[in-house]
Amino acid sequence: MTTILMASHQDPVDLWRDALAMEMPELEFRAHPDGGNLAEIDYALVYWAPHGLIASLPNVKAVLSIAAGCDHILADPQLPPHLPIVRMVDDFLAAMMAEYAVYGVLHFHRDMHYYRREQLQSQWSRAWPLYTPDTSVGILGLGAIGGDCARKLGALGFQVHGWSRGPKSMEGVICHHGPDGLLEMARQCRYLVCVLPLTGETRGIINERLISAMPKGGFIINIARGGHQVDDDLLAGLDSGQLGGVFLDVFNQEPLPSEHPFWQHEKVWLTPHVAGELMPRSCAKSVAANIRRIEAGEPALDLFDKERGY
Ligand code: NAP
Q: What pLDDT was estimated at residue 251?
């Protein structure tokens, strides 16, 4: 019998139990804190599990992330160092993230921020639109999620740029890479969308340097992690007019403290970390596929790479 223990304070246990039962009826499902005999647990399926929980599973073979990022696992100081960690890569998650990215870009591109202000003053006032084929969007991170954002924004007729760590080629996307590539891309883009993993190299990357490289009045959409943005630099960019607006789903501190200036800022649009949810009926497929691979002695797909940090 193969046994999985789920530990998450926010994901729906019942939906995960049902979805895994459909994909892998032979798997025994348990949910923390009712893990039973912890020596029987083969896999941990986690999102912000209590620190020390994974270390208390003597026979666990892998940690499966209920998130694309693994920051919530690495934050556990007692995490056994050699345990394989499997990221969540899921088409529906990528599609949801791309929906948000498209929505954020279109919100600003079709002047919804402007029309809302005008509406509240009962003003019938038309803004002249930009020509989409001349308008560039830059995607920071061209992975599973960024690639889908790039394809969908390209299908809407934008000029799409993308930035990755190593060189990449993607049809219809002007690709940049490495530290120089970032500013080269930012200089050309009215809209930037961040879908990077949070690593030592990417923390604080949405900063004064990046903002000032963008054309004046540009817009940033961050749906990756709050640690990518320097809050004071965003606020300074918004207040000086260098930035026309930002759409933020993620924050340095979550929940965003009630006194944070983002809440009331008229150029900030924010949501409470909801850009991409992990739907059990879709994600259970990759969890089951990876467990089957590991049980067959094969490496899991989408293994977290400790050297790269993502
Ligand atoms: P992924 O497939 O691993 O792709 C990561 C991309 O970022 C790759 O293109 C990678 O470049 C690039 N990258 C990494 N480090 C870089 C660096 N130093 N410089 C330039 N590019 C760099 O990741 P994913 O599945 O698309 O997920 C991305 C992130 O989205 C996750 O880590 C998570 O934090 C975030 N996320 C947020 C939500 C939400 O609800 N807000 C939901 C899901 C995911 P290479 O191609 O060269 O490797």
A: 98
Domain residue limits, the chain: 2-90+278-295, 91-270
For tokens 């740029």, what's the residue? 161
Residue 293 a catalytic site member: no
Stretch (H or E) spanning 208? helix 208-213
Ligand 1 contacts CB of residue 24 (under 6 A) = no
Pocket test for ligand 1, best of 91, 145, 185 (most atoms within 8 A of CB): 145
Atom number of ligand 1 nearest to Cα 182: 20
Class for domain 91-270, per CATH? alpha beta
pTM of the model: 0.95
The per-residue pLDDT for 309 is 94
Q: Where are the beta strands (DSSP E) in 32-119?
A: 43-47, 62-65, 85-86
Q: How far is the CA of 116 from the centre of ligand 1 (A)?
A: 32
2-90+278-295 fold: Rossmann fold (3.40.50)
Q: Is 201 in the pocket of ligand 1 (CB under 6 A)?
A: yes
Q: Which of 66, 140, 310 to probe ligand 1 with, by most ligand atoms within 8 A of CB?
A: 310
Structure token pair of residue 130: 């930009």
Question: What are the mean pLDDT values of the chain's consecutive 10-residue runs (310 residues total)?
Answer: 97 98 98 98 98 98 97 97 97 98 98 97 96 98 98 98 98 97 98 98 98 98 98 98 98 98 98 97 97 97 95
Beta strand segments in the chain, E: 2-8, 27-31, 43-47, 62-65, 85-86, 136-140, 159-164, 173-177, 191-194, 218-222, 243-248, 268-270
> CB of 94 closer than 6 A to ligand 1?
no
Name the residue at shortest CA distance from atom 5 of ligand 1: 143
